[in-house]
Amino acid sequence: MAVSIAKTKVGASGFSPEFIAAKVEDGRDIIPSTDFGFLPIPKRLRYDPDKPFHFGLLLNVSFGFASTFVVANLYYCQPLLIEFSRFFDVTYGEVSLIPTLIQAGYATGLMLISPLGDLVRRRQLILLLVFMSTTLTIGLALTPNLRVFEAICFLIGVVTVTPQILMPLAADLATPERRASALSVVLSGLMLGVLTARVLAGVIGNFNTWRIVYFMAIGIQCLVMVGAYFVLPDYPAKNRDLTYFKILYTMVKYAVTEPLVIQTALINIASSACFTSFWVTLTFLLGGPPYYYSTLDIGLFGLVGMFGVLVGPLTGRLIDRLVPWYATMVATLVLLVFQSVQTAAGGINVSAVVIACFGLDVARQMQQVSLATAVFSISTAARARLNAILILSLFIGQVMGTSVGTEVFLMMLLLRGPHCPRNHWFGWAGGFEARKSVVEARKKDNGSLEVNQTDSSRQGEKMDERLVKHTPPRDASNAA
């Protein structure tokens, strides 16, 4: 293994840190020692092909917390719209455009930035995105102009895709038997950020100026950036033979030609529509007869959803033991059960609403993790693009938010069985085994059987060749 170090003398001190570019070349990869060419990577976080990173619980939880505090940028504004209208002296209709702009920016980032996880080093990309979102948040906290505020909100939405870079990275770092558990921790952190952002912003905005919310967000994101620098391992770039536009083209190709991706996206759209519809209509249910709850009381139901999110990592362990199709089926049936509870008794007793809130959050998270686990198995080199398709389908479902999905997402799942070949659009094949370990064992046995059959056929061919060589011609034997 050759080690090449670019050295630049600076007086008697040795080397200039701005120009040190220590790289290790092992014939397979060039491993950098700096981020952006000047920021040194801690030695323990540098990629070593001979010593893979141990993706333990601490690193997994760090991914989850980073997702929590970064995705919160998308939701701080929602409880503060009234304060915005007073400060900028505009109508509620004008400030209601702010959440829409943030979500539009987020959708743009999903399409144009998150696929970069398949093209560049993820550590550099995450550090850059967090730095940009922190810098833009400073603008939000200081600007006195509504139009500037709206433009910055859109840009913050664009760069707040760090959790969608961390999800595929967690899938790459985790072992296959722990992949679903790792994904569930990151997803739990993301969903926790959605809930906590609204609570924190609402409480702070109620007792102080809305600018304090964004100053708090700046401090939190600085902590995330520092934590990412000291915790996030470096990982080599994938698909170096592809260009950015080729990455976008292949993402579209996956979205329209890959049967499993299309099935998963349709399930995600319909299920997300139902889930969003439940939370949107919950406000009207609890604010009207027979409950007549205040806004504060209704907001506390978000805490019930928070408990459901915290249970999410436990469902990941179950998904690790099952074929993803069966985990999706279990989650889908549980969703239908709790939706039935809400429909039948939600307007009669508040306990039914509490049970539905908890159950729907747990089941929806289990469904998302199982769908992601199934799709990520298609290609290790395209996980960022596949994840972008999944999140975009979820986003489309949230925009729809109708009850149409209830009749659709179970049918979409049943069209392709648990062991349907990758290139088949419809059908069932390979039996009904639900345990992943049994399925993997069968694949190994079948693989070894095929190898043995190939070896025996080759031996048979060699024996035939020997017989042909040693058997005298028929005419020669007759002559004798």
Structural summary, described in words:
There is one protein chain. With 480 residues, this protein is mainly alpha-helical. 67% of the residues lie in helices and 3% in strands. The chain has 19 helices and five strands. It has helices at 57-71, 81-88, 92-95, 97-112, 122-142, 146-159, 162-173, 179-207, 211-231, 244-257, 259-287, 295-299, 301-321, 324-345, 350-376, 383-400, 409-414, 436-470, 474-479, and strands spanning 2-4, 23-25, 30-32, 34-35, 39-40. The strands form two sheets. The chain has a three-stranded antiparallel sheet, with no helix packed on it. Strand 4 (34-35) and strand 5 form a beta hairpin. Helix 7 (162-173) runs antiparallel to helix 8. The longest helix is centred in the C-terminal third of the chain and has 35 residues, at 436-470. The N and C termini lie far apart (68 Å). Residues 1-28, 402-407 and 473-480 have low confidence and may be disordered.
